[in-house]
Amino acid sequence: MKVIKYFGLLFSCILLVSCAVNDQLESLEEPVKPVSSGYENDYLPINRIAPKYPSFAVKRRITGYCTIEYTVTTTGTTIDHVAVDCPKKVFIKPSIEAAKKFLYEPRTENGKAIEVVGVRNRFIFGMR
User: Which CATH number fits domain 25-127: 3.40.1080.10, 3.30.2420.10, 3.40.50.1950, 3.40.250.10?
Assistant: First the structure.
């Protein structure tokens, strides 16, 4: 009997929490972690911008993700943006626009900044 009351209470709490945050929007970024490189200093993110959630997707309650691949330059900016895994095409443009605004501390080798090709970042578009 106590077990049934416990699960009933637990279910009620979960239901209350999910109802309370159901209509909040979220647009998160999830970086794909780089493999240890062995360089003096690996590239480090300084500024990353969350993408804008497309109003078309909000109205239709569309959720999903988009993985963007790009190059981190010797100055820490990003170039050559390509969507490599984006099942819902509505998220490509805002993901690329956000990635273009990223700023990194560049990777260094022998005291000189070098470009890093093939950096990936996954943007998650969800609604709560």
Answer: 3.30.2420.10
